[in-house]
């Protein structure tokens, strides 16, 4: 489950940070549980498996690294997404955290919105929601299985990135996404490219979709980002 109601376990012994993360994630619609000790988290995870764990490196009872290692040896948690939090910024420590089995790594202090975005992207990639094979918006049709897009019966030739961009927008019609959110959702949080790249691909997508006097379904929201018009194709 990648959307709201996905269950997240926060294993963090710094109470102010734990409360801050819990508040922000619950605001996003996630179900959140917090644990302050590594050994307590180990017990909790034997009883029930959440959709993702935010795991601090340094914990009383059992270190985050050791807990991560244990989780990766158990079938029920082997593929569960894990994001490590740590005050250690050295490259060697980062590599050690990832090599232990963590999916992502965030060094304190960090931006809470960035962490939330990484959680969202990791959940979406690891446990994709069951969605319809075909998305439609007005006369635009996107076939996920055949990787084809058509508009009014005309095939629309899109590159892989433009296809993913259109798919991402059509899954959430009417919602405005910043360039950073689109980079995270379409390219992934582990890919570091300039935000202006989004503008280039949106331009290519528009050119492919819009022929002659076809209306443009993609909205540019000045100062915010882009969305696909949820009223597109509907009678006014």
From TrEMBL:
<dbReference type="Pfam" id="PF00486">
    <property type="entry name" value="Trans_reg_C"/>
</dbReference>
<feature type="domain" description="OmpR/PhoB-type">
    <location>
        <begin position="132"/>
        <end position="230"/>
    </location>
</feature>
<dbReference type="GO" id="GO:0006355">
    <property type="term" value="P:regulation of DNA-templated transcription"/>
</dbReference>
<protein>
    <recommendedName>
        <fullName>Phosphate regulon transcriptional regulatory protein PhoB</fullName>
    </recommendedName>
</protein>
<dbReference type="GO" id="GO:0000156">
    <property type="term" value="F:phosphorelay response regulator activity"/>
</dbReference>
<keyword id="KW-0592">Phosphate transport</keyword>
<dbReference type="GO" id="GO:0000976">
    <property type="term" value="F:transcription cis-regulatory region binding"/>
</dbReference>
<keyword id="KW-0902">Two-component regulatory system</keyword>
<feature type="domain" description="Response regulatory">
    <location>
        <begin position="7"/>
        <end position="123"/>
    </location>
</feature>
<dbReference type="InterPro" id="IPR039420">
    <property type="entry name" value="WalR-like"/>
</dbReference>
<keyword id="KW-0238">DNA-binding</keyword>
<dbReference type="InterPro" id="IPR011006">
    <property type="entry name" value="CheY-like_superfamily"/>
</dbReference>
<feature type="DNA-binding region" description="OmpR/PhoB-type">
    <location>
        <begin position="132"/>
        <end position="230"/>
    </location>
</feature>
<dbReference type="GO" id="GO:0005829">
    <property type="term" value="C:cytosol"/>
</dbReference>
<dbReference type="GO" id="GO:0006817">
    <property type="term" value="P:phosphate ion transport"/>
</dbReference>
<dbReference type="Pfam" id="PF00072">
    <property type="entry name" value="Response_reg"/>
</dbReference>
<keyword id="KW-0813">Transport</keyword>
<comment type="function">
    <text>This protein is a positive regulator for the phosphate regulon. Transcription of this operon is positively regulated by PhoB and PhoR when phosphate is limited.</text>
</comment>
<keyword id="KW-0805">Transcription regulation</keyword>
<keyword id="KW-0963">Cytoplasm</keyword>
<dbReference type="InterPro" id="IPR001867">
    <property type="entry name" value="OmpR/PhoB-type_DNA-bd"/>
</dbReference>
<dbReference type="InterPro" id="IPR001789">
    <property type="entry name" value="Sig_transdc_resp-reg_receiver"/>
</dbReference>
<keyword id="KW-0010">Activator</keyword>
<feature type="modified residue" description="4-aspartylphosphate">
    <location>
        <position position="56"/>
    </location>
</feature>
<dbReference type="InterPro" id="IPR011879">
    <property type="entry name" value="Sig_transdc_resp-reg_PhoB"/>
</dbReference>
<keyword id="KW-0597">Phosphoprotein</keyword>
<keyword id="KW-0804">Transcription</keyword>
<dbReference type="InterPro" id="IPR036388">
    <property type="entry name" value="WH-like_DNA-bd_sf"/>
</dbReference>
<dbReference type="GO" id="GO:0032993">
    <property type="term" value="C:protein-DNA complex"/>
</dbReference>
<dbReference type="InterPro" id="IPR016032">
    <property type="entry name" value="Sig_transdc_resp-reg_C-effctor"/>
</dbReference>
């Amino acid at each position: 489950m990648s959307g709201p109601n996905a269950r997240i376990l926060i294993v963090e012994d710094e109470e102010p940070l734990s409360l801050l993360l819990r508040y922000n994630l619950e605001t996003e619609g996630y179900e959140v549980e917090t644990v302050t000790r590594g050994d307590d988290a180990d017990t909790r995870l034997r009883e029930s498996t959440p959709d993702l764990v935010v795991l601090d490196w340094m914990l009383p009872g059992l270190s985050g690294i050791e807990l991560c290692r244990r989780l990766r040896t158990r079938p029920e948690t082997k593929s569960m997404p894990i994001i490590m939090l740590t005050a250690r910024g050295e490259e060697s420590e980062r590599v050690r955290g990832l090599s232990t089995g963590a999916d992502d790594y965030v060094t304190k202090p960090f931006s809470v919105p960035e962490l939330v975005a990484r959680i969202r992207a990791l959940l979406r990639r690891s446990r994709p929601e069951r969605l319809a094979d075909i998305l439609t918006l007005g006369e635009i049709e996107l076939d996920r299985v055949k990787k084809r897009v058509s508009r009014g019966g005309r095939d629309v030739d899109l590159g892989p990135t433009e296809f993913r961009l259109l798919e991402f927008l059509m899954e959430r019609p009417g919602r405005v996404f910043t360039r950073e959110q689109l980079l995270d959702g379409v390219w992934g949080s582990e890919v570091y490219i300039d935000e202006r790249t989004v503008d280039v691909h949106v331009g290519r997508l528009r050119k492919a979709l819009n022929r002659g006097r076809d209306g443009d379904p993609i909205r540019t929201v000045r100062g915010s980002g882009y969305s696909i018009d949820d009223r597109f194709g509907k009678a006014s």
